[in-house]
Amino acid sequence: MLYFLSSLKKTRLLTCAGSVILYLACVYDVAQAEQWYTGSLLSPAPAKNHAGQGTIEPYFTYSLPVGYFDAAGVSQPQHPRQQLFSNSTLWKYGLTESLSIQAHTVVSYGWKNSQGHSNGPKFGDFPVDLIWRFIDGNQKRYIPSFNIFAGVVFPTGDYNKLQNTQNGVGTGSYVFRTALLSQSSYTLPGNHPLRVRTWGWFRHALNAAKLNDRTTYATTTGFQGRGRPGMSGQAGFSLEYGITRRWVAAVDVARDWANGSKIWGTTQNGSYLKKIGTSSGDWQVDPAVEYNFNSSIGLITGASIYYAGHNTGIRVAPQFAVNVVF
Q1: Which of 1, 15, 84, 159 has the greatest number of C-beta atoms within 10 Å?
Q2: Is 253:233 a contact under the CB 8 Å cutoff?
């Protein structure tokens, strides 16, 4: 009898231990099922989920023009070609569980045959945005999250009195910008997650920049006046398909548009000049592959390909970025 009771206790202990191990394994499997992302190349990212959470994401891009689209949208050869290497770094910090602040620092180096090189790396204009997630998503009910962006681009880049046109990387104007972003997630056959983002940007200059001599507004030596960049915007969507927990295939498709810049003032010979530049637009696709080391660190590599448009360049811009969440 004593032996039977002892065996029964041991059996119960083993059963309990097995249940605990099975429970922990199930919890581990659920945790493992969570997909890791870095975010696609082009799409904006929503507000952070936690106060005090931050993100640093440096992008490295080489822009290689291969031609241009004329006013009718017909591709034409381009010589010489403007080339550019740039580093754009996103800095984001969660102020609350639904409100974040983000900034971009952009440093570039450009060169073009017959027009020389930049006088070293050039710091561009500096955008700062607030992001408010005003609707939380619910995957089970197919409800996307919605975020609104509002911010200002500060005119920190060189644009005026240029000794070299390659040094011109700014507009000289404070630019208001706003965006609406939605994000939703779905589970496809084979238990592969799909994350979808759609967005629209709008930008409008708040002031006219003072122009002297050679500027980024295509003025020449002796010009004195003012200039204002035209309104511009972008609309697009992105897809991120989880192949495995670490590997993700991503693609963005977007349409950019911009009204022509306006300049007015006097030229070197004293004549009055008032001019509005031509509008432009393009379509781009950005295929990429993401690899996530863990939930906090990921790498993405791909390219921006501008495949249609008018009054704009045809460019291929290979790039990669590292996303770090802390």
Answers
A1: 159
A2: no
Q: Which tokens hold the place of 33?
A: 């099922």
CA 227 to chain CA centroid, Å, is: 27
- Give me the phi and psi of 97, to 5 degrees please: -75, -10
Q: In this structure, are 144 and 2 located in the same domain? A: no
For 19, other C-beta atoms within 10 Å of its C-beta total: 10
Local structure of 283: helix, strand or coil = strand
Cis before 80 (ω within 30):
yes
Give the chain's domain count: 2
- Bridge partner residues of 233 (DSSP): 202, 257
Q: Is 25 exposed, middle or buried (0-12, 13-18, 19+ CB in 10 A)?
A: exposed
Same domain membership, residue 305 and residue 221 = yes
For residues 269 and 147, state if they share a domain. yes
* Mean pLDDT per 10-residue section of the chain, whose length is 326 residues: 40 40 36 80 97 98 94 92 95 98 97 88 98 94 96 98 94 98 96 97 98 96 97 98 98 98 96 96 98 97 97 96 97
Q: Strands of 22-169 (E only): list them.
A: 54-69, 75-76, 83-94, 99-112, 116-117, 122-123, 126-135, 145-154
Interval 108-146: pLDDT, tens: 999 988 778 999 999 999 999 999 999 999 988 889 999
Q: Give the side-chain half-sphere CA count within 13 A for 213.
A: 9
Alpha helices for the chain (secondary structure H): 2-33
151 with 73, same domain?
Answer: yes
Using DSSP, state whether 102 is helix, strand or coil.
strand
Residues 192 and 292 occupy one common structural domain: yes
Report the CATH number at residue 213: 2.40.128.130
Residue 50 shares a structural domain with residue 13 = no
Distance CA 179, CA 46 (A): 11
Domain range spanning residue 26? Answer: 1-33
